[in-house]
Amino acid sequence: MDYRKPSLVLAVIRSLKLHGSWTGKTHVQKSLFLIKTATQIDVPFTFVLFKHGPYSFELETELEQMKSYLAITSEPDPNGYGVVLSPGPGSRFVDERGGLSEVESTAVGRVCRFVGQRNVAELERVATAAWIRKRERVSDSTSVAERLNKLKPHVSIPDAERADKELCTLLNWNCGGQRGQS
Amino acid sequence: MARLQHEVRDVIHGFVIFDNLEKRLIDSAPFQRLKCIHQLATSYQIYPGAVHTRFEHSLGVMAVADRIFQTVFSAEMRDEVRDRIPDELNEDQKRYWRRVVRIAALLHDIGHLPFSHAAEDALLPEGWNHERLTTEMIRHSEIAGILQGNKPPIDVEDVVDLAWDVKKRAKVDPTLALSPWKTLLNEIITGNTFGADRIDYLLRDSWHAGVAYGRFDPVRLIDGLRIVIDPSNDEIALGLDNGGIHSAEALVLARYFMYTQVYFHDVRRAYDLHLKDFLVSLLPGGKFSSDWNDMLRYTDHEVLVALREAAASTDHAHHILASRMMSRRHFRTIYELSATHKMQNPNIFSEILDDAKNELGDENVRSDHYGPKSETNNFPVLLEDGTVASSLNESGVIARTPPIEIGLIFAPPETKDRARAFIKDRLQTRLVASSVRGG
After folding, report:
1. Fewer CB near the last or first residue (10 Å), C or N of chain A?
2. Residue A64: per-residue pLDDT
3. Any alpha helices (H) in B191-265, and if so which ranges?
4. Based on the number of CB atoms within 10 Å of its own CB, is A169 exposed (0-12), middle (13-18) or buried (19 or more)?
5. Alpha helices in B361-415 (DSSP H)
6. Which residues on A lie below 8 Å from B403 (Cβ)?
């Protein structure tokens, strides 16, 4: 068994908890997408643009696999909508055989600090903006906001612009200005 | 005077009604082919009554999808939902989309290979599956002409967008961006918890197999469906009135039991492996063509004739493979993965499989593994005060339905006793070793 994937998932779940997140599946999904997009870390999950923004079916499969040997546990969130993921007793199998380097752990921490306090609607907007910039190679803020609004009609243009700005701050990207500017 | 409406009697839903356009689609060659494809592949070897076909299932899915559509769009709709889809709620638009939903539901399975899901992954070229073949047939066969020739015409791409499970399509088309409206209608047909496909196959398969596991109350379930704003993503979605939650619990459990007791019955899985081996040997290059026109030539009947011919002649190149199926000389289960074993050693299945192959030889060991897979049954529940909650909070049954994981190792009947004794011994060693490693 390759323990790279479960090592990353466990690191994200632990880091999210450290930063005050209730650690739902969406938080784990979006954290790993942003880590893949924004850092040099090898994240061996493929993402597609799905109903809630960037999403990995492989990650969903990995979460199921980890639940089956109790590397993680999943409980309904009494205060929210969905499930809370936590490290379980079987995480020892992963810790004994996997693990991340210090550089990787630092990068995971940076993204999880950003993700931890945000709700799923905010995360959907930010991650979709990241998708548009990285995968669709749209580079000016106005076009990113317009595209986000087209993909998610319930996201207003001002909200889309705010999400894109937050993303650029997180990633230290020079996101350029309005259309026509460089 | 020509009839405007037609009907057939169905064992599950009573009369299924269809119009002239739908009759032309039903009479087309791609749809008629479904009469020769068993819904449950080789399950009739274990459940003799399970000889029903994709034909009747497809008619049933159309009937259920229509019932869902009618229910959710005639129920009282909250303003915040109505504001999201004002154009689509126009009567002309609604009439058009009801037709598309019915047609997409009717055609959603036309690309199935012989024996349905058995061995589909191994028998098609990379990147192909029955859903993709279905869309090829909708776009390029006589079906496209029937849809475009209708007055008013039906847009072929609208049918594809609703018929092709958006979750599976996203895997092969990462740029797919279906509108919230189409995603909602797609969910009516393919949805995890309330999809018409699932509602029909559970009821139909359990009826034909003669088991009680798949039963639930579809009338109560469908009656409780509503369009809501899903709090998890702020999109329109199919949800359930709180009063229908127990019928949803029954469906979730029905599916769990049908998977563990019928769909993943170990003998059925052994037959699937033998069928795959036979077809890989028989087909040019070991695979079916991805050409939809070519696929129209193949049904269960052609495969069964080939199996009977090969089994009847000891000189036939594929005699042994065929007689495994036709003479019930199928491989027997020598190990079945248990949750307890896996919790003690996450690698137990692959380790035992390797041990069995080393002891018995690769040619004498076959395996089948599925999952673990939980159902995504986190759906919106509309509470009496108008707020929307998660099904996982409203129902402990739904929140705690176990994931499905099946791991089976098989060996020839003539070696099964020796193989089982060997596995029993190795299992103890492997579990003890893991426990020592884990401290």
Report:
1. C
2. 92
3. 196-209, 218-223, 245-258
4. exposed
5. 391-394, 396-399
6. 64, 67-68
Nearest chain B alpha carbon to A50: B170
Centre a 10 Å sphere on the Cβ of residue B373 and count the other Cβ atoms it contains: 16
Contact A71, A93 (CB under 8 A): yes
Of all residues in chain B, the one with the smallest CA distance to A79 is B393
Q: What is the pLDDT of residues B78-129, one digit of tens each?
A: 899 999 899 999 999 999 999 999 999 999 999 999 998 767 888 999 889 9
Residue pairs between chains A and B whose CB atoms are closer than 8 Å: 96
**Exposed/middle/buried for residue B153 (C-beta within 10 Å: 0-12, 13-18, 19+):** exposed
Whether residue B176 is predicted with pLDDT greater than 80 in this model: the reply is no
Which pLDDT belongs to residue A40?
87
CB contact under 8 A, A81 and B399: no
- Indicate if the pLDDT at residue B1 is higher than 70: no
Nearest 5°: the CA angle B362, B363, B367 is: 70
> What percent of chain B shows pLDDT beyond 70?
98
**Mean pLDDT, residues B140-168 taken together:** 96
Q: Classify burial at B206, counting beta carbons within 10 Å of its beta carbon; exposed 0-12, middle 13-18, buried 19 or more.
A: buried
* A131 interaction partners in chain B (CB closer than 8 Å): none
pLDDT value of residue B439: 41
pLDDT value for A176: 63
Tell me, what's the pLDDT at B329? Answer: 94
Asked if pLDDT for residue B254 goes beyond 90, the answer is: yes
Nearest to B156 by CA among B144, B166, B141, B165: B144
B4 is written with which tokens? Answer: 């405007």
DSSP state of B365: -
Contacts of B357 (CB under 8 A, 6+ apart): B365
Residue tagged 């170990």 (tokens): B266
ipTM greater than cut 0.90: no
Q: For residue range A123-171, list pLDDT tens digits in order.
A: 999 999 999 998 889 988 999 999 999 888 888 999 999 999 999 988 7
| B233 closest CB neighbour out of A77, A83, A124 | A124
Tell me which residue has tokens 């066969």: B141
Residues in chain B: 439
User: Which DSSP string do the residues of B126-150 spell out, in sequence order?
Assistant: TT--HHHHHHHHHHHSHHHHHHHHS
Which residues does residue B235 pair with via DSSP β-bridges, in sequence order?
B230
- Supply angle C-alpha B78, B79, B84, rounded to 5: 105
Q: Which residues of B95-133 are buried (b: 16+ CB within 10 A; e: fewer)?
A: ebbbbbbbbbbbbbbbbbbbbbebbbeebbeeebbbbbb
Name the residue type at position B185: L
How distant is the Cα of A22 from the closest Cα of chain B, in angstroms?
Answer: 14
Mean pLDDT throughout B306-332? Answer: 95
**Within the 61-90 window of chain B, which residues sit less than 8 Å (CB to CB) from chain A?**
84
